[in-house]
C-alpha cells in the first residue's frame, strides 16, 4: 500500500526456441547449445549474436546468469538478509541460526498471503555451522538453487519440486562425528496475531493442530477458514531413517539418524489446492509423491523449470563503470523473486509475496492494491511471461459476477466498478472504508487494459472474446453512467478521487484518461467481434464530447483547478505517460507531457514510484538510468535485494523491470522502437530479446554507440511498424528464410507485412548484419559482493566488509512504525518520516565514537527524540525547528559514548515530538 501520510499458460507459439533453421553462412551457427564453453564467447563492436534460425539472441544462459548469482562469503544470522529460494508457488528465506533456519510461505496459504507458513530449522550436533574455516553461500539464479558450503565436507542444497507446494533441503555431510540431526517445524507466538489479512475468523488462524507419524510430521492452522484457505506445514525425509514427535502445541520435530546424504522434503500444502480442502491429507500425499520421485530427478526437473523460464527472453544492460551491470543484476534477481511465487491461484502480493522474515507481522494485507500490484506485474508481457500476468488478470476476471453485483448494489449501475483495494474474492472492504480509495473509479480501466494487453501479446482470440472484452464492456458501461453532461453537451466527471492524492475533485485526470484510452479500444474490439452496436455509438458520443484534460497551459494537472489538498504523494498527472500510454515519444503533446514529468510534485516519492518508467516513455535515457539507480539507492537496503520500507516490498523490483524493458524496447503505440531511452554514456552496452505488442520477438544489440540491427520474429503474421533506429539512414527489411529484401527505405518509419513464425532482419544497407562476426553471449560466475556507487546498496556479503565511515543513512536503519520517503535534498535522496509515539529507527553494528551528528528536519519547535545506545536511554535530544518536513536540513551534534558494534536508536518516547531523520554520523 502507498504511504498513508503523503502513502494460465502461455501459448506454445510464444516460447523462444533454442535453435531451428540454419542461418546464412555469414551469420554463423544458430544454436546456443554449441556455445557452452565461455572461451567461445567473444563480444565486440564487430560481432553480433542474433540467431537467425531461432529469431532470438544466442545466449549461454547458464554462463550469463552466473554473473548475477548472489554470494554470501560469511554466514548471515540476520533474518532480514536471508537469501531466497522458491519454486513458483512456495518460497523460503534462509539464514544461519543454530544450523539453517528458513521462513517458509506459500502463495495460496491464506487470504492475500497474510500469514506465512512457519519456520523450518535444521540443526546437528556438533553444529553444521561450527568448526569450519571456509564458508560459501550462493543463490544460483539459472538453477534457482541455494547452496551453502562449510569447508569441503558439508553442503546444504535448497531447491524445490517445480511449480508445486513442496521444497527440499538436501544435505551432504561426510563428517564422521555427527551424533544427532533434527528438523523442527514451528510457528510464532500467535496470541497477538491481528487481522491484517481480512480473514472471516481470526481464531482459526490462532488454532494449531499437529500430527506425527512414521511418514512425517506437520502442523496446521486455518483449518476452518470459510474461504477454504489454511494450510499444513509438514516434512518427511528421504535417504535416512527418522522418528517424529510433537514438541509443543506449535512445534513438531523429525529426529534423523545421522547419514552422509539425505533429503528433507517440506510442504506448505494449502487447503485451497487440496482435494476436499483437506490440507493434512494433501501434505502427506505431496510428500509421499516427491519422496517416491526422489531427490535427483526432482532437482533435475526443478532446474529445467527455471531454465525454461529464463530462456523466454533476454536483457543485457551494462557499462557505466559497472553501475549499469548492477542494475542488470537486480533485473534478473527481481525476475527470480517474483517468478518464484507467481504461479499460484492468486497474485504475488506486493508486500507479502512468498518471501519475508517478519513472522506474521505485516502491513496492507487486507487486499490487493492495484496501484502496487501493477508495479509488480506490468513488465512481464514484454519479457514473455504472459503466464504470470494471467494470474494477476485472472483474479479480476473470475470475480466478474461479484464485481458486477456489487457495482449494482453500491451505485445502481449496470456495469463494473473495480475497487482499488480489492480482496481475493472481489470484496471492497479495504476500499469503501477509506477516504483514500473509496471514490477511485479508474482501477477497472487499468484491469481491463491489462487484459487487452494480454491478448495483444498472446493473440488468444478466445480470451479476447470471452474474457477481456466482456470485462472492458462492463467497465465502459460504468463510466458512461458515472459521467455527467453540461449544458453545452460536454461529458465531465463531477466528483471522484484523482487516485489517492486528491479527494472529491472535479474532472480527475485519471478518469478522463481512462475514458480516452479505453473507449476507442472497446469500440474497435466490439466492432471486430460484431457486438454491441448501440454501446459503440454511446461510447463514441462520449469520446466526441469529453472535456479536455485539465491543464494550465504548460503542465497537465491532476484535476480541474484549484488543486485540492494533497493526501498522498503520487504524481497523478504523469499517469498519462504510463500506465495509460496516451503520450510519449513523438506525441503531439510531447512537450506538455515532458513538462508535467519535470514538474511532478513528488519525484521518486516512495517504494512504488514509477518515475523511471515514465522517463523511458519520454525517451529520457539518462533520467531513466539515474532513476533506476536512485530507486535502488533509496530502497534496496539489504544485501539480498530487499528493502526495509514497510509500505511495500516488491513494487520497486517490478518498477525496475519495467523501466529496463522500456529503455530497451517500446511498442505501446503500435510502433516498435529499439533503444529509445538509454544512457548517453558511451560505455553503455545493451542487448535484448523482448516482446512487442502484436506478437513479435524483437532482438537488437547496441555497442560503442551503434545499433547493429533489429531482428524480428513474427509469431502471428501481423503487420509490423518499426521506427528507423538510424534516423534517416537507408535500411532494408530482409526475410531470413530466402534472403529476400522486403523493402528498402530511408524514412523515419518502416511498415511491412509478415508471415507467422518467420524471421526478419532490419539492417542498414551500408552495413548489413553480414558485416558482423557471429558469436554468443555468456559470462563468468560472480564470486563476491557487488556495490552500487554513490549509495550504500550492496548485493551479497563479502568476507571482509568495506571500511565503515560511521555514516548511517536513516532509510537503511531498522524502522518501527515509521518509513522512508524520498527527498532530493537528503543524503542518498531519502529520509525517515512519520515518527510518532512508539516509533524508532535503529542503526546496528556502528563504529565507536564520542560524538554523534544527526541530520534532520522538523516543523516542530522543537522535535524531541530519545537517544539509546545498546538499549539504554542516554539522553533526550531536542531538534530546533527547520520550518520544514523536507528540503531543508540541519545537523544536531551531541556528545555520547558509543562503544564498538553498538546499536544506536532514536525513539519517539512519551512527551516527545517528531523530527524527520536523514542520517547519523558517529565520530
Describe the fold and architecture.
Helix content is 23%, strand content 28%. Helix 15 runs parallel beside helix 17. By secondary structure, it is α+β, with helices and mostly antiparallel strands. The strands form 14 sheets. The protein has a 9-stranded antiparallel sheet. Strands 5-6-7-8-13-18-17 form a 7-stranded antiparallel sheet. Strands 20-29-30-31-36-33-34 form a 7-stranded antiparallel sheet. The protein is globular, with a radius of gyration of 28 Å. The N terminus is likely disordered. Among the domains are: 137 residues, Immunoglobulin-like (Sandwich), CATH 2.60.40; 229 residues, Distorted Sandwich (Beta-galactosidase, Chain A, domain 5), CATH 2.70.98.50; 120 residues, Jelly Rolls. This is DUF5010 C-terminal domain-containing protein. Keywords: Signal. Pfam families: Glyco_hydro_95_C, Glyco_hydro_95_cat.
Give a topology summary.
Layout: E1 47-48, E2 50-51, E3 56-57, H1 61-66, E4 70-72, E5 83-86, E6 90-96, E7 100-106, E8 118-125, E9 135-140, E10 145-150, E11 154-160, E12 166-173, E13 180-186, H2 203-206, E14 208-213, E15 216-221, E16 231-238, E17 242-248, E18 251-256, E19 261-270, H3 279-293, H4 295-310, E20 314-318, H5 323-339, E21 368-369, H6 370-377, H7 386-397, H8 400-411, E22 421-422, H9 429-432, H10 443-458, H11 461-482, E23 484-485, E24 491-492, E25 496-498, E26 502-505, H12 509-529, H13 533-544, H14 590-598, H15 611-617, H16 621-635, H17 651-664, E27 665-666, E28 673-674, E29 685-692, E30 696-703, E31 706-714, E32 720-723, E33 731-735, E34 740-745, E35 749-752, E36 758-764, E37 773-774, E38 786-787, E39 794-795, E40 807-809, E41 814-816, E42 819-822, E43 830-833, E44 840-846, E45 849-857, E46 863-869, E47 872-879, E48 890-898, E49 902-907, E50 916-922
Parallel strand pairs: 1-37
Antiparallel strand pairs: 2-3, 4-9, 5-6, 6-7, 7-8, 8-13, 9-10, 10-11, 11-12, 12-19, 13-18, 14-15, 15-16, 16-19, 17-18, 20-29, 21-22, 23-24, 25-26, 27-28, 29-30, 30-31, 31-36, 32-35, 33-34, 33-36, 38-39, 40-50, 41-44, 42-43, 44-49, 45-48, 45-50, 46-47, 46-49
Helix pairs in contact: 5-17, 6-17, 7-10, 10-11, 11-12, 12-13, 15-16, 15-17, 16-17
